[in-house]
Inverse folding.
């Protein structure tokens, strides 16, 4: 089974024309499943419900997604911020749909110009027909199939966005497998609590499975785990392995940052310049961490209010934002840990 996660900014009606609505929370999700030559192929649309009023669900959808979908209903500040978000998340492939309100008109060349300026010139334009959009999204799945398969072989990273106790099952954590795979009976480590856990069972798409892989939204039933080891920003990984007798040394897949040096790529629409003392927010792998700029002398240095965990292998770009600026998104950054 291959899953393509799609971050969408647009209407509920357009999303429902492509896939079936499945969940209504901070983000609304929609799923379409079809049979392919190598098994099931799934489109999973993740639509932040209250953009632009609340930007964190938008960041969460960008973290989980591989491609994007934008319904353009007007060329305004919100449209610009959405473009900056997708570009800062490194989502180079996507689809845009121009769909003005009745009696309104949108300049197609202007839309394409802004997209190119933001760094999204590789996105494709489609009409509003749901079947056409569905086929175009499956086409994008085919284009990045190699990346989707490679992600399954990386070290495990599962950011958790929900957890609760289920009668007869126990503690269940839910999140998107960002990288790697997790199997029933596997030993786990929960960060930042550094608590242990063992996989009791797994569910994907409401089905019990023996393994969940990158792209899957998974429910992990845990044993030997305390509920206070899980928070909204917890990450599940495989524990480090150190066996001198067998010559095995496998470190944790994530690096803990309390202070970082940032190589910041500023959005072309952003005029604000960061200064010492400024508060910034970092979004990566469903983490949303507050930091403060400590120095700009020999590069941008930020101290984080709580630890930020960055993948050691193939790290995604980190979105940097200032919630009191306009636009709120500064751009993207590569982080190096400072001791």
């Amino acid at each position: 089974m291959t899953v393509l996660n799609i971050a969408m900014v647009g209407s509920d009606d357009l999303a429902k024309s492509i896939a079936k609505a499945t969940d209504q929370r901070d983000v609304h999700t929609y799923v379409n499943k079809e049979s392919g030559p190598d098994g099931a192929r799934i489109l999973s649309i993740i639509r932040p419900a209250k953009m632009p009023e609340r930007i964190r669900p938008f960041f969460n959808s960008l973290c989980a997604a591989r491609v994007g979908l934008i319904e353009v209903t007007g060329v305004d500040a919100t449209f610009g911020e959405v473009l900056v978000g997708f570009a800062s998340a490194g989502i180079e492939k996507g689809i845009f749909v121009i769909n003005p309100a009745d009696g309104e008109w949108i300049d197609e060349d202007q839309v394409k110009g802004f997209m190119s300026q933001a760094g999204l010139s590789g996105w494709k334009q489609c009409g509003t027909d749901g079947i056409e959009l569905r086929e175009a999204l499956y086409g994008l799945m085919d284009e990045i199939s190699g990346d989707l398969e490679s992600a399954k072989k990386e070290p495990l990273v599962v950011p958790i966005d929900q957890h609760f106790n289920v009668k007869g099952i126990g503690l269940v954590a839910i999140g998107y497998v960002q990288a790697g795979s997790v199997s029933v009976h596997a030993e786990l480590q929960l960060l930042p609590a550094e608590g242990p856990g063992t996989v009791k069972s797994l569910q994907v798409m409401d089905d019990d499975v023996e393994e969940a892989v990158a792209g899957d939204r998974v429910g992990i039933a845990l044993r030997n785990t305390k509920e206070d080891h899980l928070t909204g920003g917890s990450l599940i990984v495989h524990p480090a392995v150190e066996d001198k007798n067998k010559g095995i040394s496998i470190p944790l897949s994530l690096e803990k940052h309390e202070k970082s040096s940032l190589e910041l790529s500023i959005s072309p629409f952003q005029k604000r310049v960061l200064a010492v003392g400024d508060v910034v927010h970092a979004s990566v792998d469903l983490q949303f961490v507050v930091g403060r700029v400590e120095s700009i002398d020999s590069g941008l240095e930020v101290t984080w209010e709580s630890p930020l965990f960055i993948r050691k292998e193939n790290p995604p770009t980190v979105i940097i934002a200032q919630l009191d600026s306009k636009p709120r998104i500064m751009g993207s950054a590569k982080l190096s840990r400072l001791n």
Summary: The mean pLDDT is 93. The longest strand covers residues 254-266. Helices lie at 12-18, 56-64, 77-88, 108-118, 130-143, 145-151. The longest helix spans residues 130-143.
